[in-house]
Design goal:
About 45% of the residues lie in helices and about 20% in strands. By secondary structure, the chain is of the alpha/beta class. α1 packs across α4.
């Protein structure tokens, strides 16, 4: 049997339902009855399907109907096709309501030492139909990814009150103080002036300009220009460099949960606490992000 010239990819679901009904009953009369149609149109539909595919799907005799190898090979794919088709309306409704979808989520390392792991686990349990693709990236990299439509949402670190791009919606997750990360060998009591003279390990300005400027302004208010011993992008690396004795660092309080040999965390002394820099973490997302992203933002707001 030769296939007709018409493409086989536009065969209606109705035809596959007819094929499957006959394949399951192997009886034209019973199959037609289950489809609420008469037998002649069913016979014609199966013949047309065979012509379009260019193969026999059923062996017919006066007394029996049997699947050919080609027909048997199509039974399970046809069943799956019809099941998928039946699920499409519900999936579309779920997607529109944010019940299913994908979130491309950026995050800075500091929030990974805070509530992010718990949020992710709880959200996945509550919304199993939503897939989260994580991308660790500094704030500047995230903003570039937003501009390129490569991220849907992201957690960023910045100085309190600093305006983020107006093209993004923002949810503040709170403000925390910066604390001292010191080598374990540092004296337990360090005078304020001595602390300010210690070499500083800090992140490059490009990755968090507002926070970098707040740290330098803090030093300048005390009449000191900091000696920057080393710059490092990740907070974990900064802490490791401090443990190696390269200097001290001012890090978000959440970093206290990162314990490393050779490192201690301390609050700033009272003489430096007034006007000390603080860090704010925000969740940002594109206003045109899919409903699943809006659902995630509402979840984070409820659990912050």
């Amino acid at each position: 049997m030769k296939a007709e010239g018409t493409a086989t990819t536009d065969i209606e679901l109705r035809v596959w339902r007819q094929f499957l009904a006959l394949a399951e009953t192997l009886h034209f009369g019973r199959a037609a009855q289950s489809l609420h149609m008469t037998q002649p149109p069913l016979t014609q539909a199966i013949q047309q399907l065979e012509r379009r595919l260019g193969v026999l799907l059923f062996e017919r005799t006066r007394r029996s109907v049997a699947l050919t190898p080609a027909g048997a090979a199509l039974v399970e794919p046809a069943r799956q096709l019809l099941q998928l088709a039946a699920a499409l309306p519900g999936r579309a409704r779920d997607a529109a309501q944010g019940e299913v979808g994908r979130i491309r989520l950026g995050f800075v390392s500091t929030i990974a030492f805070g509530p992010l792991p718990l949020w992710l686990r709880a959200f996945r349990e509550a919304q199993p139909g939503i897939t989260i693709e994580l991308r660790e990236a500094t704030g500047d990299v995230q903003l570039e990814a937003f501009a390129a439509h490569e991220l849907d949402a992201g957690f960023v670190l910045h100085a309190p009150g600093i305006a983020l791009p107006p093209s993004l919606q923002r949810l503040s997750l709170g403000v925390e103080p910066l604390v001292l990360a010191l080598p374990e060998s540092a004296p337990k009591r360090l005078a304020a002036a001595a602390l300010l003279r210690e070499p500083l390990v800090i992140f490059p300005r490009a990755i968090a300009p507002s926070l970098y400027d707040a740290v330098l302004a803090f030093y300048h208010r005390h009449g000191v220009t900091p000696v920057i011993a080393q710059e490092a992008i990740q907070m974990q690396t900064i802490v490791n460099l401090v443990s190696a004795g390269l200097g001290l660092a001012l890090v978000p309080q959440a970093m206290r949960s990162l314990q490393r040999p050779g490192i201690v965390y301390r609050d700033l002394p009272a003489a430096l606490a007034d006007g000390a820099p603080r860090a704010e973490t925000s969740l940002v997302w594109r206003p045109d992000a899919p409903p699943a992203v809006q659902r995630f933002a509402r979840f984070v707001e409820a659990h912050r």
